[in-house]
Specification:
The complex is a heterodimer. Chain A is α+β, with helices and mostly antiparallel strands. Chain A has helices spanning about 30-40, 55-65, 70-80, 85-90, 110-115, 120-130, 170-185, and strands at about 105-110, 145-150, 160, 165. The longest helix of chain A has 14 residues, at about 170-185. The chains are: A alpha+beta, B alpha/beta.
Chain lengths: ~200, ~900
């Protein structure tokens, strides 16, 4: 009993050109991280669970080293928000990685004060020594180099943040030596000048 | 940096713009002052509908005495400000900001659409040469039927993100990454697969055309724009319709419209192509020997007049009837009932209010003295508590739905009474998921809880309400615990909702067909009114009883007298008879008149022989379709006046009058908040189609009553209404021109009535609380029919799909769906997309299953938009006692898997 005309409109629409973060492995917190998450989320009102998005993502990154699309969806479901909400946060903060990274993530500040004090030379030195470009990880999986915006230590430019440790007033030679040190001594070579990230206090 | 307004500042501000003095109201921004002074500054991030963010830095101005230039859009205007806009350094800063954007922006975009805000700014500043000559890369998304996305033209102004958040409240657009890498992306893999609801607000605000109407490439750009009122729901949004070569090609919202304030929904904004659909009937037709044949207007009118005249002569005037149309204008509905009463001599006239909000009108009239909704949509922003009862505004009245969502975001408490977890329920403070058909016990229990805790408004009751004691006794037995058992809602939740509504004033009640389309429809509305009276939530801003009317002019159709017991202006035959008899120089029949359902009953009994149905597909939309078909087949003559060959025409039509849509004619509509607004002709009527008012006048002339139907244009008809109805007297077309006026408006200097019952009720100074005894629905579930089927509408289709089914909305919702909770589906072995047969005592329908956790176990929900599914085959024959409104919301059914 239909009188609708044949639909005159093409329903086979083109797909969007947008690229998504790769889904990655299925993700779930380990039991320890689940317990940590539960202890964090109760700090926020029940109807404001979304406020826990940053610590929830720290846990993801500490667990698997980076944040996959599946992990974003997992966090979104935990907090009752959309995966896109989580993606906004992940993509905004340079300290979240959406691809696997090396043991040491070297963040070289490229904002004006550091740039004026030779940050580009520092980047060149590190990249040259490792044979990679900014944004890449060296073949041994030890180092990832990232150029980032202001690290908040302009008075001691140029600044490099390795994982959570600051290395300041860095000349290209200092940077080269830092790489050798990190290779030789591992974490012990870090400056010890830490900004305490919330998840480390858990 | 932004200076706060000084406390106690004068209500008007005296300022100076580029040396010229000016005064503005307090609360204005510097940008307002510039615009008032006629100073043009380009803006990219500014939109009146949004909170200013001042990031594009194009509207930088200097205020004398301030150290730095400030953005005009986000800086409040202060008294005594001396503002300078054209200093050399400001111009330089503007050019620099624009140049930075231009260098990443493709030149061909500017050529294609020179009128877009960003392109205009580039051209005004002579920066064409800075533009990127290559085509820039950027995600292109053509997935959505209405919204084309080309992010190579995005300048990151965030207006789409903000309007989606702040106006529609949908949060579709997201900002991914930052700095130069920023991308604006939807919350799904493509816009089509995102949570987008197609309102087009982002397209409307986009200053570059990165987001654009997809139809523009197909239909071309508009060459002329006409403001009119939306042809869809009863919200009554004002829109600007663009045409090109006699064809409608685009729709935009009107920024200063009182109802929609620059917003529209997917139906109003995009679903307009039904007007020129291939199967529109453009010639009058007569059916002989089962075959339709095209004919001339003269022959069709003469034929219809002769047959009608003959039937009246043989069986008496009460054997024929007329159905006015919720799609037609006030003027046309006025003429339709005048035709019935004067030409045919019968009160057998009705409209589709019968099957939707007749219970609201009846209850409101009984309790408060007038059947009209009491407050305005603007009260949504005033109310601190909003009670939404049996309505799903985000789908069916989307612009009101969006306003409610924003009110809740700003802190209003929301109570939702609905068996389903509708979108608003997820935002609600309390969601009372009642079993279908148990509104009466729920509302009785809320009254009980209010009385038990003495949360009533004593002063209001003493001053204006009678019958409190009697009513209190009638709800005494309805403790929340007892209601909890009947309704399936936690008793504490009922108490909490009652407490909220009673104490968090002002509280506004908004209801829909989930309250009225029950055998207890009028009772339910009466109880809702009682809650408002008990708590003093009536006659004040942010309060009231507000039925969301389903169709653009269903309020007007009933109000203009298309009801057997109502004369124009909703006058009762007793009070109004003298006025109309004198004006029409005819006696108004004293018989009671048949309403639509009674017409069907009488047809089955052989007492009713002919029906003229104007813009109303009775067969498809009446409940219990098989009985409706039998009744309609029993008629000797069915005159169908419509745009398309409706099911009614196809099955039982004798004569077809091709009418034209509201976009092809002039007149007025009356929305749910009683606002009369102008309808204007955008394109000329297609083919031989005529506006309904002309057809009615033509037929009246053919039947020898031309002198009472001698109208050249709708304004003359409206002026007759104004002369006869006090409430319309002040509403001349000239006054209605901008924004309309709210009924009643008794004189030319009257501002219209935004809130009814302010100081006294229409019927007198005091209202009476009417107690209601609960009579359960007669539709009983059992082993044979274990499910309760609830019917309703969805966002992308409208009613019987006559209009939206002929637009690309079909791509957004191709078919009716049977919503079922996953557990029930599991038990029946059904999964998403399977087809199932729904069988009731009255008939059956086959439709695809959708798993929906928002539907409760044992319940089903389906829409009735798809004619081939014909869901009303399954709805029942029970009716509201007072008004005859069918019980569309409760049908006992079983579900079978089809092979």
């Amino acid at each position: 009993m239909s009188f609708h005309p044949k639909m005159a409109y093409d329903a086979s629409f083109h797909k969007s050109g947008r690229t998504l973060t790769e889904a990655g492995e299925p993700f779930a917190y380990t039991p320890e991280n689940t317990a940590r998450f539960e202890s964090i989320v109760v700090r926020y009102p029940a109807d404001r669970r979304r406020s826990a998005v940053l610590p929830a993502l720290y846990l993801v990154q500490y667990q698997q080293g980076h944040v996959t699309a599946n992990a974003m969806r997992y966090v979104a479901d935990l907090l009752g928000i959309t995966a896109a909400d989580v993606e906004d946060v992940v993509s905004y903060y340079t300290m979240f990685h959406t691809k696997p990274v090396g043991t040491f993530v070297i963040n070289v500040c490229r904002t004006l004060p550091c740039a004026l004090n030779g940050a580009e030379r520092v980047t060149e030195e590190i990249c040259g020594k490792l044979g990679i470009k900014p944004g890449e990880t060296d073949p041994s999986g030890t180092f990832t180099v990232v150029e980032v915006e202001c690290l908040g230590a302009c008075d001691r430019a140029p600044v490099v943040m390795v994982n959570d440790a600051w290395h300041e007033c860095l000349s290209p030679e200092d940077a080269s030596k830092l790489l050798d040190d990190l290779r030789a001594r591992g974490e012990a070579a870090l400056s010890g000048c830490h900004h305490v990230v919330e998840s480390r206090r858990l | 940096m932004i200076a706060a307004p000084v406390a106690g500042a004068a209500p008007t501000l005296s300022v100076e713009v580029n040396g010229a003095p000016d005064t503005l109201p307090a609360g204005a921004t510097i940008l307002d002052a510039l615009r008032a002074a006629g100073v043009h500054l380009p803006t990219l991030c500014h939109d009146e509908r949004l909170t200013p963010i001042g990031v594009c830095r194009l509207c930088l101005v200097r205020v004398q005495g301030w150290a730095r230039a400030v953005p005009a859009c986000s800086t409040p205007l202060l008294d005594g400000m001396r503002i300078e806009t054209n200093a050399r350094d400001l111009e330089d800063a503007r050019r620099t900001a624009l140049t930075l954007l231009a260098r990443r922006y493709p030149a061909d975009g500017v050529e294609r659409d020179p009128h877009k805000e960003f392109h205009r700014a580039i051209l005004e500043h002579g920066l064409e040469r800075e533009l990127l000559q290559a085509s820039a890369p950027g995600p292109i998304d053509r997935s959505h039927p209405y919204i084309a996305v080309d992010m190579s033209r995005c300048i990151d102004c965030y207006r789409c993100v903000r309007i989606c958040d702040e106006v529609q409240g949908q949060f579709v657009w997201h900002v991914r990454d930052r700095g130069l890498d920023t991308q604006i992306v939807p919350d799904g893999p493509s816009l089509f697969e995102s949570s987008c609801v197609g309102c087009g607000a982002c397209v409307d605000t986009c200053p570059t055309g990165a987001l654009d109407d997809a139809a523009r490439s197909r239909l071309g750009a508009a060459s002329a724009w006409t403001n009119t009122t939306c042809p869809y729901c009863g919200v009554g949004c004002e829109m600007s319709v663009g045409a090109r070569d006699g064809r409608i090609v685009a729709v935009k919202p009107v920024l200063d419209a009182p109802v929609n304030k620059g917003h529209l929904c997917v139906k109003g904004r995009y679903a307009f192509e039904f007007v020129g659909a291939d199967d529109r009937v453009l010639d009058p037709m007569i059916r002989t020997g089962g075959q339709w044949r095209c004919t001339s207007w003269d022959e069709a009118l003469t034929f219809a007049a002769a047959r009608l005249g003959d039937l009246v002569a043989r069986h008496g005037p009460d054997s024929v009837g007329v159905l006015g149309s919720a799609r037609a204008t006030n003027e046309e509905n006025y003429l339709a009932q005048k035709f019935a009463r004067v030409v045919l001599g019968t009160n057998n006239v009705d409209c589709c209010a019968r099957v939707c909000h007749a219970p609201s009108a009846a209850a409101l009239k009984h309790s408060l003295g007038t059947g009209l909704g009491t407050n305005s949509f603007d009260d949504i922003e005033i109310a601190r508590t909003i009670l939404v009862c049996g309505a799903n505004p985000t789908e069916n009245h989307p612009v009101v739905g969006a306003r409610i969502k924003q009110a809740v975001r700003r802190g209003a408490a929301l109570i939702v009474v609905d068996p389903r977890r509708i979108e608003l329920a997820s935002l609600a403070t309390c969601h009372l998921a009642v079993r279908p058909g148990t509104n009466v016990p729920l509302l009785n229990a809320m009254a009980h809880a209010i009385l038990a805790k003495d949360l009533v408004d004593r002063r209001f009751l003493e001053a204006r309400v009678d019958g409190v004691e009697t009513f209190a006794r009638s709800v005494e037995a309805w403790t929340p615990e007892r209601a909890a058992v009947v309704c399936g809602v936690d008793a504490e939740l009922i108490r909490r909702a009652a407490r909220l509504y009673a104490t968090r004033a002002p509280a506004m009640s908004i209801h829909g067909l989930g309250l009225t389309e029950h055998v207890q429809g009028t009772d339910g509305v009466t109880l809702l009114i009682n809650l408002a009276l008990l708590t003093g939530n009536i006659g004040k801003p942010g309060t009231g009883i507000n039925p969301l009317r389903g169709q653009n002019n269903v309020q007007g159709a009933a109000h203009m007298g298309c009801e057997p017991n109502t004369l124009p202006g909703a006058a009762s035959p007793k009070d109004g008879r003298a006025v109309f008899e004198q004006a029409w120089k005819r006696e108004i029949p004293s018989t009671h008149g048949l309403h639509l359902l009674h017409m069907m009953d009488a047809a089955l009994d052989g007492r009713f022989n002919a029906l003229w149905t104007i813009g109303y597909d009775v067969l498809l939309t009446n409940a219990n379709a098989s009985e409706t078909v039998r009744a309609m087949r029993a008629l000797d003559l069915v005159i169908v006046q419509d745009l398309f060959l409706t099911e009614t025409a196809r099955e039982v039509g004798s004569v077809f009058f091709p009418a034209c849509s509201s976009l092809e004619k002039d007149g007025t509509f009356m929305n749910a908040e009683r606002r009369i607004q102008r309808v204007r002709q955008v394109v000329r009527p297609l083919g031989q189609s005529r506006p309904d008012w002309r057809i009615i006048c033509d037929l009246a002339r053919a039947m020898g009553h031309g002198e009472l139907f001698d109208f050249r244009e709708p304004e003359a008809i409206w002026n007759e209404v104004r002369a006869l109805c006090e409430g319309a007297r002040g509403m001349s077309y000239a006054r209605l021109d901008r924004g309309g006026l709210q009924w009643p408006c008794p004189s030319e200097d009257h501002p219209g009535t935004s809130i009814l019952h302010r100081d006294s009720f229409a019927a007198g100074p005091r209202a009476v609380l009417h107690g209601v005894a609960y009579q359960p629905s007669r539709e009983s579930t059992g082993p044979e029919y274990p499910f309760v089927l609830n019917t309703g509408r969805s966002l992308y289709q409208f009613n019987a799909g006559t209009m939206t089914g002929r637009t690309p909305n079909n791509a957004l919702r191709p078919s009716d769906l049977l919503d079922m909770c996953p557990d029930d589906a599991d038990r029946l072995g059904l999964s998403e997309g399977d087809t199932a047969r729904v069988i009731s005592r009255y008939g059956s329908a086959v439709l695809p299953v959708r798993l929906n956790a928002g539907v409760q176990p044992g319940q089903l929900f389906a829409t009735f938009h798809t004619p081939s599914i014909f869901l009303n085959s399954t709805t029942g024959s029970h009716r509201d006692g007072a008004t005859g409104t069918p019980e569309y919301k409760v049908a006992a059914v079983r579900v079978e898997r089809t092979a």
